[in-house]
Write a sequence for this structure.
């Protein structure tokens, strides 16, 4: 195990601002792929997942980590100050290396939908997988996204999550330096 911490953003203020803007744009335009740079997180984190977590988490946002990502725990804690959530249900943000069981995370309530978790899902690629047709707010007619690494029944999983609206989980899909967002408002079907 390497005990040396790598740096966070090359330029902390500008890097976090660029990443925050990319996440906002991705959430506003589901299916659109944004590219992030300026950070070199430790494995197994990719650039986008590391940047998103450094941007969105802080000392007040409990972060659940996939056990397979434990090697990044110290780096994330040092750079963001985010406390570790042992129970996924108590996490504000989560990092998963592949799609986790979304029912394990807080989905919020009708009175407090903002109390739901945002799950950052690291995938092998945001292209080359099963094509998904997206509809909903931020999409003029439809958008296509073909992330590799999601389970075959992802459209059904997503339909159950979307059925919780206004509660529900938001996803940020990351692969390498790329990210795309799937807010709970978007409808998904196999294309």
């Amino acid at each position: 195990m390497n005990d040396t911490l790598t740096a966070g953003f090359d330029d902390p203020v500008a890097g976090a601002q660029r990443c925050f803007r990319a996440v906002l744009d991705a959430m506003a335009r589901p299916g659109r792929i944004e590219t992030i740079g300026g950070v070199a997180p430790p494995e197994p984190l990719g650039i986008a997942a590391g940047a998103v977590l450094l941007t969105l988490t802080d000392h007040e946002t409990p972060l659940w980590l996939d056990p397979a990502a434990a090697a990044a725990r110290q780096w994330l804690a040092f750079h963001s100050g985010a406390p570790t959530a042992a129970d996924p249900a108590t996490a504000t943000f989560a990092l998963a290396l592949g799609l986790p069981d979304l029912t394990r995370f807080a989905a919020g309530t009708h009175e407090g939908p903002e109390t739901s978790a945002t799950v950052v899902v690291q995938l092998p690629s945001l292209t080359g997988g099963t094509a998904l047709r997206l509809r909903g707010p931020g999409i003029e007619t439809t958008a296509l996204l073909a992330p590799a690494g999601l389970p075959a029944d992802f459209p059904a999983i997503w339909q159950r999550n979307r059925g919780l609206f206004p509660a529900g989980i938001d996803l940020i899909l990351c692969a390498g330096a790329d990210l795309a967002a799937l807010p709970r408002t978007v409808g998904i079907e196999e294309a």
Q: What stands out?
A: Residues 12-190 form a domain with the Rossmann fold fold (CATH 3.40.50.11310).
